[in-house]
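Okay, is this right?
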Amino acid sequence: MGKVHVLDHPLIQHKLSLIRDKETGSKEFRELVEELALLMAYEVTRDLPLKEVEIETPVAKAKARVISGKKLGIVPILRAGLGMVDGMLKLIPAAKVGHIGLYRDPETLEPVEYYCKLPYDVEEREIIIIDPMLATGGSASAAISFIKQKGVKNIKLMCLIAAPEGIARVEKDHSDVDIFAAAVDECLNEHGYIVPGLGDAGDRLFGTK
């Protein structure tokens, strides 16, 4: 059963407050999102398995522990998810990166995949889907479904801010997926924006409107 993990580390909460501020410009916003992704990746990867190896320090031989070869994949949901990739790669540089692009059909309002490029061995990897905002949950749920169709069994979802509505949608559609967020906000407004949220993450990352 998937769980919701709210990462309340002081550094995460401090940086989250800065990206919420409407006065924070695109340059600082991008830097903060990257830093938040790095800090959150530390927590999201907490359960990676370890194995014991023997090494030699400058003083003596010693037993040490290293990650036991578990393959990781990072899949940002375009476009806002791109802002989180570099921060994660600083911490886990061996991870492979896929991309998934979705748009909402204006008639059915359902997410439609327009781009999907994943690592060739994706079914062997633990996949972390990243998107700054989990609002309605439609895009996240669709992305998880598309990745499951590729044979992936182990998926986590990581976002900066989640709405209760988005969490409920993902839990309903994918009860096996853990959700990691820096904050769970109050609700969605009539335009589908998270309240209080931080506005449109993609526009603030890339300076568009």
The first strand starts at residue 4 and ends at 6. The longest helix spans residues 26-44.
